[in-house]
TrEMBL record:
Protein known as: Enterochelin esterase-like enzyme
GO molecular function annotation: acyltransferase activity, transferring groups other than amino-acyl groups
Signal peptide segment: none
Pfam families: Esterase
Species name: Kitasatospora kifunensis (Streptomyces kifunensis)
Keyword presence, Nucleotide-binding: no
Sequence intervals crossing the membrane: 6-26, 38-56, 71-89, 98-115
Keywords: Membrane, Transmembrane, Transmembrane helix
Length: 430
């Protein structure tokens, strides 16, 4: 279950078997096959592939970045394998039909494997099957009788002493965070509580990182594909059980929705993230207080959201982590976004668009980290543009490039690599 499926032997084996299966489906001694059925299968596969790209990237636009050329290619290969098998079925007997369908399955597995390698979203079979294998308990956290906070000029790590018997691992639970003020209907959130939070005499008042996934996606992505518990537990192991609390929230409502993280005609997503989420945290958890104890972060769309909330709700979030975000929120094009969100009112969009906000307002008390993949040709330039705007707005920001593109190797590295920086902004460590 933990063997890698995006690197090593397994994807190479699937690639070899898939190509062999595709060649086997394509080759035949029948002249009728070569003159009619094979050309029809190839032409139909090409047409369906082009149609798929046009529908997803140009018409439907279910997510901002669309399908890459590599993904479109492997989608086309999968379609071709399936069509070749279907065109071969009529003259075959049952044994031949099973063989053709088995070959088509290998081609589809190869295509799926190669697409997964593009994003590294499912690095192991355990991660792929996590929705069916894992049971996340419901959130339940009592209040400690006494708490510990750091005095002025000192960090929490300097005054905290790990008690005997403290667990070495944190916990992950799930809980709804309702849109009481916003009216927004999100999916359930995930809450990571580090080992130190399980201390009760006294309990350290830890900072909070509100984290968001991309789109398509949901809160579970950070838990499964992002290895949230492993990343946070490793940090806690190096700091006597101390680590930020992480609340992974849903800013979109579904895999295919895009609220733009704004208060607009689409939804009051900014109110949800800036009021409902912090209100829930304060009501249910014992944490640090004030903007310096709260940060917001995310990947891709979630990264864009984090910058938006940092400039539109700076009284709530004192720092942010923008991993592979965009230079402005989008539904696929600027005109489409402004029309859908604000009825074509450019001034209303500019009032909350982060680059426009930073152009007219300074944020000397806000800290931010931008992270992007070195080979991310689409989001890399946008991240640099947002970073430069943040510098001009007086923010204390960093810009980091890590190996990879727009994929989970970058997203995981972005969180892992910036945890020390975030904890310093929080005053958790020196």
């Amino acid at each position: 279950m933990d063997w890698p499926i995006t690197s090593g032997v397994i994807p190479v084996l699937l690639l070899a078997l898939g190509w062999l299966a595709l060649v086997g489906l394509a080759v035949s001694s029948s002249t009728h096959w070569w003159s009619r059925r094979f050309p029809c299968a190839v032409l139909l596969a090409a047409a369906l592939t082009v149609l798929t790209r046009a529908v997803v990237n140009d018409w439907w636009q279910p997510w901002p970045d669309g399908l890459t050329r590599e993904v479109v290619f492997w989608v086309g290969i999968g379609i071709l394998g399936l069509l070749l098998a279907l065109f071969r079925l009529p003259p075959l007997r049952w044994r031949g039909r099973f063989a053709a369908l088995g070959a088509a399955l290998l081609v589809l597995l190869m295509s799926g494997s190669q697409i997964n390698r593009q994003y590294d979203q499912y690095p192991t079979l355990r991660v792929l099957l996590a929705p069916w294998l894992q049971h996340t308990p419901k959130f339940s956290a009592g209040k400690a009788a006494s708490t510990l906070s750091a005095p002025g000029g000192r960090t929490l790590a300097e005054v905290w002493h790990r008690p005997a018997g403290l667990p070495t691992k944190g916990t992950i639970t799930t809980s709804p965070i309702p849109g009481v003020k916003s009216g927004f209907n999100p999916r359930a959130a995930y809450v990571y509580l580090p080992p130190a939070y399980q201390a009760t005499e006294p309990r350290p008042l830890l900072p909070v990182l509100v984290l968001m996934a991309g789109q398509p996606g949901g809160p579970a992505d950070w838990v499964n594909s992002g290895d949230l518990a492993g990343t946070m537990d490793s940090f806690a192991a190096e700091h006597q059980g101390l680590a930020p609390i992480v609340v992974v929230v849903d800013p979109t409502g579904s895999d295919w929705a895009n609220t733009l993280c704004m208060d607009s005609r689409i939804a009051k997503a900014q109110t949800y993230l800036a009021q409902d989420v912090p209100d829930w945290v304060h009501a249910h958890l014992q944490t640090g207080t004030g903007r310096t104890s709260f940060a917001i972060g995310g990947l891709s769309l979630g990264g864009t959201c984090s910058l938006q909330l940092a400039v539109n709700a700076p009284q709530v979030y004192g720092s942010f982590l923008d991993i592979s975000g965009q230079d402005e929120p989008t539904l696929g094009s600027h005109d489409k976004t402004v029309q859908a969100a604000f009825g074509g009112d450019e001034a209303a969009f500019d009032a909350v668009d982060p680059l426009h906000v930073m152009a007219r307002q300074k944020f000397p008390d806000t800290a931010g980290a931008f992270v992007v993949g070195k080979s991310d040709g689409e989001y890399g330039p946008q991240q640099k543009k947002a970073y430069q705007a943040a510098v001009a707005a007086g923010m204390k920001v960093t810009f980091t490039e890590v190996p990879g593109g727009h994929d989970w190797t970058v997203f995981r590295a972005g969180l892992r690599g910036q945890l020390t920086w975030l904890s310093q902004q929080f005053g958790l460590i020196r």
